[in-house]
Amino acid sequence: MNTVCIVGLGYVGLPAATIFASKGLNVIGVDVDKNKVEAVNNGRCYIKEPGLAALLHDVVSKGLLKATADTVEAVKQCDAVIIAVPTPVREGVADLSYLRDALEAVKKGLRRGMLVVIESTIPPRTTISFAKPLLEESRLKVEKDFYLAHAPERIAPGRAIEELLNVPRIVGGAGPRSTEKAIELYSKVNPNLYPTDATTAEFVKLVENTFRDLNIAFANLLALMAEKLGIDVYEAIRLANTHPRVNIHMPGAGVGGPCLTKDPYMLVSIFKEFWGTQLIELARRINEYMPRHTVEIIERALSDAGLSLEGARIAVFGAAYKGGVDDTRESPAKYIVKELLEKGARVVVYDPYTKESFGAERADTLEDAVKDTDVLVIVTDHPEFKSLDLENIAKLIRHKIIVDGRRVIEPYQAVKYGFRYYGIGYGKVFKL
Fold first, then answer.
1. Domains in the chain: boundaries
2. Cα distances (Å, whole numbers) of residue 11 to 14, 254, 299
3. Are 336 and 314 in contact (CB under 8 A)?
């Protein structure tokens, strides 16, 4: 397998296409977005990912990676096809329309000996019960004429290259020969592969993200309790985690991104009548509540200072859903900004990684964001926010109030410069 077609050039597909090409394979990237196709063919990276821009330019200049909007023609030229299209959840059910469209196109270019791999996150049995019969409408049979597998992506924004090359991958075939063929392909870029069957691979992906969501929900529940008790949840979790068999995640202003916000629902959707799945749904509800709770803390902070949310000028630091990346998909900041605006606040958003402001005013510099504002709200744990010049901010801000949704500032540091400090899971107002 020397030529690979990757369908979908988003946050998963573009890094994958670049890495496969960097290993000497001929790669054809496919996307319906002609702007992405043009960007790739010009060696221009449209995703903010460390090291990706230079690597993309290199493989394109060497002729190892090119892009097209014609899926069928691209498939006809390849030995293997990797599908990395979105599978959003709508009303609690996975929307497989993008996957269906990709498979329909692949079917038209399918030939004997070809390997088809689905990397998109999908409900268990999708490979066997959905993709397999659709592709076999070509009159070619899985395991006999072509091969079909699921290899769920494990890419964290900000670490895509490192994780594609080194993080263990689960590879599950629709049959043993399919697993063997998929292992053969992925071993060209990553030696840490774990073979299994397709349904197990699908299940494992959802288990991973649901576990993380449950853990974060537990931390957020503890944060809400700590606020009532008048203690610091971060201190409590730090101490609890000294136990050798305890590893609690940290709470925050909300869970964002393309995976944790939908994968638990995808898992629950196939077990609607299964006793106990309410646990997963409750965890989602807790995490979905945290942005609203952040707004409640902002309202309380303003009230304590004799101010109203309506008309207040609020600086929101962070639009991305996590620190160090430009990805704003399902960011808690979106919901926080929207609610603040609806309640009549004047909101300015500052994020050094993205220009997104969710309909609020956008500041180009930190100083512009905080000047004459009433409250500084930290939503994203960008590295730059962990070393804020609080002395300088104190000179610019109108009312010295900080609402910290990620514990990027230690309360005592804020107090040192005269701020009133409020935070998720911080059960008291820290002030002089």
1. 3-191, 200-432
2. 6, 21, 36
3. no
List 259, 262, 322, 400, catalytic entry: 259
pLDDT tens per residue across all 432 residues of the chain: 789 999 999 999 999 999 999 999 999 999 999 999 999 999 999 998 999 999 999 999 999 999 999 999 999 999 999 999 999 998 888 999 999 999 999 999 999 999 999 999 999 999 999 999 999 999 999 999 999 999 999 988 889 999 999 999 999 999 999 999 999 999 999 999 999 999 999 999 999 999 999 999 999 999 999 999 999 999 999 999 999 999 999 999 999 998 999 999 999 988 877 889 999 999 999 999 999 999 999 999 999 999 999 999 999 999 999 999 999 999 999 999 999 999 999 999 999 999 999 999 999 999 999 999 999 999 999 999 999 999 999 999 999 999 999 999 999 999 999 999 999 999 875 544
Domain 200-432 top-level CATH class: alpha beta
Is pTM beyond 0.85? Reply is yes
Same CATH topology for 3-191 and 200-432? yes
Residue 200's φ and ψ, nearest 5 degrees, are -65, -40
Task: Report DSSP letters for 179-232, one per residue.
Answer: HHHHHHHHTTT-S-EEEEEHHHHHHHHHHHHHHHHHHHHHHHHHHHHHHHHTSB
Q: Tell me which architecture the domain covering 3-191 has in CATH.
A: 3-Layer(aba) Sandwich (3.40)
For residue 259, indicate whether it is catalytic: yes
- Output the CA–CA distances (angstroms, integers) from residue 216 to 197, 246, 369, in the order listed: 29, 14, 30
From the list 205, 322, 334, 400, the catalytic residue is 205
